[in-house]
């Protein structure tokens, strides 16, 4: 690990969490089973189930990706062990006909070709009157949460803490959350317009009028009990969560709790949007990520979240994403509980 690893390097590396980067390939047999771009089925208009959204739905963090979504020009990182393929394999009545979730996707990428990978069409184009089930996670990249985590990091080189006390940072997250709720008009972290979640649900229903829509919230990345954190005299709160000991990367307990509150706030926006959509006749269901409870970093039980994964001195994009167990025991279980 380079001795020059700094806060600036941390921010640049964590930005890869939004953009994605090449990692290990899945087997060629798995790639062949999903078509040329890791999409299940021979076309977008087959009857069945479409999984869309961002990295939490694509399977970023599992380390196993369909080959054609793990290249220099397409790092959507769709995984055969993401929750959607798992649900597809476990239910005979469910056929995954469109797997278009992409690491780094924002609400903008639902309506237009992916801002990082132009060969990825607008995700909504995967829907049709034959679609019967839709699942997605979306909004985290609009908020810029990964950049926020990067700003919250303390490293062996940079000893600063206190992102939760930064009004520019907290204000940006609050404004973007309001935009997802339809209460503000501001650009996302990449400068693209943010589409309100209620509008997203309405547009999905318009394109797939016979489908049930399942919108999942985001898991809490960190534990809430300070007893599971490391005592740290240099941290303002007196304790921190170690994210990678080899480079001294950690987050202050108080900053981690602000991050948790921000996650809960955006999940509440999702739940309210679903409720309002249902009142308007949209067959939408909010999928609670409570199956992850107790399984965050510095938490009570085995973590379902990857810590900072570092290879050859570089932070990998799978960092701070659900593990294989997180996809199976966290998300797949949550979607099953919700009725998918």
Total tally of structural domains = 1
Query: pLDDT under 50 segments (min length 5)?
Result: 1-37, 40-46
**Radius of gyration using CA atoms only:** 19 Å
Q: What's the average pLDDT?
A: 86
> How far is the first residue's CA from the last residue's CA?
44 Å
Assign the structural class, choosing from mainly alpha, mainly beta, alpha/beta, alpha+beta, or little secondary structure. Answer: alpha/beta
Secondary-structure element pattern, one letter each: HHEHHEHEHHHHEEEEHEEEH
Name of the CATH first level: Alpha Beta
Strand count, sense and closure of the main sheet? 5 strands, parallel
Report the strand count.
Answer: 10
- Strand order in the sheet with the most strands: 2-1-3-4-8
- Residues in helix, %: 25-40%
Q: What proportion of the residues form beta strands (DSSP E)?
A: 5-15%
CATH homologous superfamily name? SGNH hydrolase
Summary keywords:
340 residues; alpha/beta; Rossmann fold; 5-stranded parallel β-sheet; 3-stranded antiparallel β-sheet; 10 strands; 33% helix; globular; disordered N terminus
Question: Can you describe this structure?
Answer:
Helix 8 runs parallel beside helix 10 and helix 9 crosses helix 10. The chain is built from 11 helices and 10 strands. It has one domain (7-338): SGNH hydrolase (Rossmann fold), CATH 3.40.50. Residues 1-37 and 40-46 have low confidence and may be disordered. The strands form 3 sheets. A 5-stranded parallel sheet has the order 2-1-3-4-8, sandwiched between helices. Strands 5-6-7 form a 3-stranded antiparallel sheet. Strands 9-10 form a two-stranded antiparallel sheet. With 340 residues, the chain is an alpha/beta fold. It has helices spanning 7-19, 28-32, 55-58, 83-90, 108-111, 140-143, 145-152, 167-180, 197-207, 253-279, 324-338; strands at residues 48-53, 96-99, 131-137, 212-216, 230-231, 239-244, 249-252, 284-287, 310-311, 314-315. A hairpin with a 7-residue loop joins strand 5 (230-231) and strand 6 (239-244).
């Amino acid at each position: 690990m380079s001795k020059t690893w700094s806060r600036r390097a941390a921010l640049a590396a964590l930005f890869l969490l939004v953009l994605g980067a090449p990692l290990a390939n899945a087997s060629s047999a798995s790639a062949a089973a999903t078509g040329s771009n890791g999409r299940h089925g021979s076309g977008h208009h087959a009857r069945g189930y479409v999984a869309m959204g961002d990295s939490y739905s694509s399977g970023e963090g599992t380390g196993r990706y369909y080959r054609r979504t793990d290249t220099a020009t397409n790092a959507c990182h769709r995984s055969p062990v993401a929750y959607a393929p798992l649900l597809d394999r476990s239910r005979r009545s469910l056929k995954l006909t469109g797997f278009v979730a992409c690491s780094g996707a924002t609400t903008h990428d639902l309506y237009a070709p992916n801002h990082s990978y132009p060969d990825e069409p607008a995700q909504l184009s995967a829907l049709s009157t034959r679609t019967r089930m839709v699942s997605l996670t979306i909004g985290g990249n609009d908020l810029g949460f990964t950049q926020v985590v990067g700003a919250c990091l303390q490293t062996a080189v940079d000893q600063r803490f206190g992102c939760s006390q930064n009004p520019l940072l907290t204000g940006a997250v609050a404004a973007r959350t309001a935009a997802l709720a339809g209460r503000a008009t501001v650009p996302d972290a990449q400068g693209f317009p943010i589409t309100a979640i209620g509008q997203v649900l309405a547009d999905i229903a318009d394109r797939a009028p016979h489908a049930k829509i399942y919108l999942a919230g985001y898991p809490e990345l960190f534990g809430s009990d300070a007893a599971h954190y490391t005592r740290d005299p240099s941290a303002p709160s007196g304790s921190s969560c170690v994210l990678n000991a080899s480079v001294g990367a950690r987050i202050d307990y108080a900053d981690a709790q602000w991050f948790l509150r921000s996650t809960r706030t955006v999940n509440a926006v999702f739940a309210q949007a679903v409720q309002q959509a249902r009142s308007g006749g949209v067959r939408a269901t909010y999928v609670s990520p409570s199956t992850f409870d107790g399984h965050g970093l510095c938490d009570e039980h085995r973590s379902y979240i990857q810590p900072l994964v570092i290879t050859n001195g570089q932070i990998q994009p799978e960092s701070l994403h659900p593990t294989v167990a997180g996809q199976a025991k966290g998300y797949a279980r949550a979607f099953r509980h919700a009725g998918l």
